[in-house]
Design brief:
The chain has 199 residues and is of the alpha+beta class. The protein has two domains: 122 residues, Electron Transport, Fmn-binding Protein, Chain A (Pnp Oxidase, Chain A), CATH 2.30.110.10; 66 residues, no CATH class. 34% of the residues lie in helices and 29% in strands. It has seven helices and eight strands. The chain has a six-stranded antiparallel β-barrel with strand order 1-2-3-8-7-4. The chain has a two-stranded antiparallel sheet with strand order 5-6. It is globular, with a radius of gyration of 17 Å. The protein starts with a strand and ends with a helix.
C-alpha cells in the first residue's frame, strides 16, 4: 500500500524542503501508527534524494489539503513548525507525522529505495478527511509536475486531460484551485495539456 504524503527534508542552507512522495506501508497493517519502518523510492537528481543522502533524516507529513501537494511539487514555501527529534520542520497543516532517520539508502537503482526507522509518530485527534477522486487526480498531477525535469513530456501531457475531467466532475473549489495552479505552471513552461493540443 502506497500512501501519498509530503516529505520534509533539510537543504544544504538549513531550510526545510517539501516534496510529494509516496510512502510504502505493509498491506496488512491495521493502523499506520504501528509502522516502525517506512520505505519510499526517490529519483536521482531530486532535492529530496540529495538531502536524505547527505543528512539522513526527515518527516513524513500526511495531510488532506491538496493545496500543499501543489505547493510542494512547485517548491513554494509551506507553513511549518519545529519537529521533536529531527532538524527538518513539520508541515503545519498535517494531521499525521512520522519523524524518521534513514537506515538504508540503496542508490544502486533508480529510483533509489530508501528505508527509514520511525523515531516518533503523532496523529491529531479526529484526523481524517475522507476520500475524493479529485484529490487523487490532483495528487497524480502534482507528482507528475514534480518530476517534469526528467520525465518524458508525453508521460505528463497524455493523462492530464483525464485528471482534469475528474477534478472538474468531482472536486471542490480547493481541488480545482490546486489543479489550476499546476496547469498554469506547466502551460507556462510549454507543456500541452488539453486533448486538442495532443491531437
Amino acid at each position: 500500500m502506497i500512501i501519498e504524503t509530503i516529505l520534509s527534508t533539510l537543504d544544504s542552507d538549513g531550510k526545510t524542503h517539501f516534496a510529494p512522495v509516496g510512502v510504502i506501508f505493509p498491506d496488512d497493517m491495521e493502523h499506520l501508527g504501528k509502522a516502525e519502518i517506512l520505505s519510499f523510492k526517490l529519483y536521482a537528481g531530486s532535492r529530496t534524494y540529495e538531502n536524505l543522502r547527505a543528512r539522513g533524516e526527515g518527516v513524513v507529513n500526511l495531510t488532506g489539503n491538496v493545496l500543499y501537494f501543489a505547493d510542494a511539487a512547485l517548491r513554494k514555501i509551506c507553513e511549518t513548525y519545529p519537529s521533536n527529534k529531527v532538524k527538518p520542520h513539520r508541515l503545519a497543516d498535517a494531521g499525521v507525522f512520522w519523524e524518521f532517520s534513514v537506515s538504508l539508502f540503496d542508490a544502486g537503482r533508480n529510483p533509489a529505495l530508501v528505508t527509514a526507522k520511525v523515531l516518533t509518530y503523532e496523529q491529531r485527534l479526529g484526523f481524517f478527511t475522507g476520500f475524493c477522486r479529485a484529490q487523487g487526480a490532483v495528487l497524480e498531477a502534482a507528482v507528475a509536475a514534480s518530476r517534469r525535469d526528467f520525465l518524458p513530456r508525453r508521460e505528463i501531457e497524455t493523462p492530464w486531460p483525464v485528471w482534469r475531467e475528474i477534478v472538474e466532475k468531482t472536486g471542490s473549489a480547493r481541488e480545482k484551485q490546486a489543479f489550476q495552479i499546476l496547469s498554469k505552471k506547466l502551460t507556462g513552461e510549454g507543456f500541452s495539456l488539453t486533448r486538442e493540443d495532443l491531437m
